[in-house]
Amino acid sequence: AMPTAMIEAAGGTNVMDTLEKSWARVNWEAVVEANPEMIVIVNYGEVTAEQKREFMLNNPAFADMDAVKNDRFVTLEYAEATPGPRNIKAIKKLAAAFWGN
User: Fold this and answer.
1) The domain spanning residue 94 has which CATH number?
2) The domain containing residue 71 runs over which residues?
3) Which of 68, 71, 77, 89 could, after both became Cys, cross-link 62 (CB 3.0–4.6 A)?
4) What's phi and psi for 60, nearest 5 deg?
5) CA–CA distance, 55 with 75 (Å, rounded to integer)
6) 32-81: per-residue pLDDT in tens?
7) Are 12 and 91 in contact (CB under 8 A)?
8) If you ran DSSP here, which 8-state letter would residue 64 be given?
9) Phi, psi of 33 (to 5 degrees)
């Protein structure tokens, strides 16, 4: 899906890229096991990106994940995460978050 393509274009690897579906739900155990260095949050739905970030930062189940320990989150708006011209800016945002550019 587009988020994986953008993560790769920014020089990263989606820890969930082995899923057969492009948009899928995974259980929290799979996220903890994957231990991402960075968490990309898509600001979509009734729960805001900030609420999603706070949930992860304040949940003891995620305390040992590298991204949570180091407070490494990047937020994309829904329009940035779906195919379109905003993908260019989103890739730059991802690259800056991944590499500090």
Assistant:
1) 3.40.50.1980
2) 2-99
3) 68
4) -60, -25
5) 14
6) 999 999 999 999 999 999 999 999 999 999 999 999 999 999 999 999 99
7) no
8) T
9) -65, -35
